[in-house]
Amino acid sequence: MHVRAGGRIEKLAPTSMMVPGTIADWRRWTGMEFAASGRAVVPGALVPVHVSLEQDHAVYVEPNVWMQHVVPG
What is the pLDDT of residues 41-65, one digit of tens each? Predict the structure, then answer.
């Protein structure tokens, strides 16, 4: 949509947003069980959550792009 509106891709942001937490945190936030290590699909998320039961840790790393728009003036 941004490109169609005249925007130009400036830079990739592969780790634009990171949300780390314990398995208990992620269970509370999502209402999901997270019964296995690996990638877990969370409804509404753009990418899977990386889950490590062994380390009691899960992290969501969302990519993004920076766009530039010329504002008429």
Answer: 999 999 999 999 999 999 999 999 9
Number of domains in the chain: 1
Residue 25 falls within a domain, yes or no? yes
Element (H, E) at 68: strand 57-68
Contacts of 2 (CB under 8 A, 6+ apart): 67, 69
2 in any annotated domain: no
Domain carrying residue 53: 8-68
Torsion angles phi and psi, residue 72, rounded to 5? -60, 140
What is the residue whose two structure tokens read 């380390």? Answer: 55
- What pTM was computed for the model? 0.78
